[in-house]
Amino acid sequence: MRVTPAAVLYEDERWLVLDKPAGLLTTPNGPNDRSLVDRARALAPRAPVLHPLSRLDAPVTGAVLFARDESALRVAAEARAAGRLHRWYAGLATGLVERTRGVWTWSIAVDLRRPTQRVCAEGTSSKPAETRWTVVARGAAATALSLAPVTGRTHQLRVHAARAGHPLLGDVAYGGGKRVTSSDGAVLAVPRVMLHARAVWLPDLGTVVEAPLPDDLRTVLAALVPEADEAAFSRARTTVDELPEP
Q1: Cβ atoms of 151 and 128 closer than 8 Å
Q2: Which of 85, 118, 162, 242 might form a disulfide with 80, Cβ 3.0–4.6 angstroms?
Q3: Which domains does the chain have, with CATH numbers?
């Protein structure tokens, strides 16, 4: 996969928001890995801190917020503790999600059969997880969702969608197909996990920074759920925020 450069979505003295492309790690796993952190350091070489406040899986695209100094880190930590470090994702789930919105609260643990993967499970090794979601639009073979993780567990949105019976398209690790048939009978290839970090909240500015939908997700949405455009995902973000506590 050819990895495109990460675009700058927002920048000031305390915060940096980058639009991560598919195929790029957020943080390196080894000394030779290219990552979004490298891009951040190239953009802000004198920043005293460059800490990503979320870590998107390599196939996942979208907005990643970096704290650029210690005061921003403290603000972010306080916001996270208060449940106000908000992020919103655009996801394309397999099949027809019948409910309009809800909250997934299955705990998540390491999958002992596949240690790099996760599974919904209860037990001493599991961690509580919470995902708020709302339907953006439905098609015959897929449902566009706005997803808001309250916690930040590894693979959380992917695992929760799979446990709900609607794995994200392209997410082979969790049961999502790499091909799907559209309403006109055409077979469509799905290039990657259909998940995009659509927006992040700057906790001390009261500002939402949005990442445009990438071309590959736009193409699949247009074929399967044409009503799910950028404006629809922005409207759905408000609906997710209005969900009551579980």
Answers
A1: yes
A2: 85
A3: 7-241 (3.30.2350.10)
Which residues are known catalytic residues? 57
**Close Cβ partners of 158 (under 8 Å, ≥ 6 residues apart):** 57, 167, 168, 171, 173, 174, 193, 195
Predicted confidence (pLDDT) per residue in 119-134, tens digit: 999 988 899 999 999 9
Q: What is the pLDDT of residues 71-106, one digit of tens each?
A: 999 999 998 888 888 999 999 999 999 999 999 999
pTM of the entire predicted model: 0.93
